[in-house]
Amino acid sequence: MGSIVHYEVAVWQIAPGFVGRWILVAQVSSATALAAHAGFEGAQVLVGVLLGFAAAYGLGGWARSINGALPGVALLWYQVGMWSGFMLNTVWRPLVVTVSASVLGSLLLVSGVLSLV
Question: For residues 55 and 57, what is the distance between their CA atoms, to the nearest angstrom?
């Protein structure tokens, strides 16, 4: 997995320089190793990291625009997104489920009542 990330980072030029590339490769390799070690729970690790990266990339237009002036800002933003997705899907899962269940329940209740009106 690390070699794939190393190739993609070199092609897309996400990381600024040698050290940035290897930091990103180490982060992806450690997430993959943790997922393999955890078994079924490891799928949640990978899903969290992928969702966090997708959210950071989707909301990271500002980071990509200033990456020329401040090299490494986009990489830092992507790493914060991956770390946040990992934490939301593993460590903070009970809190996220509690909050999202009440919000989703309220949404379903209101939409059901309004469909009867």
Answer: 5
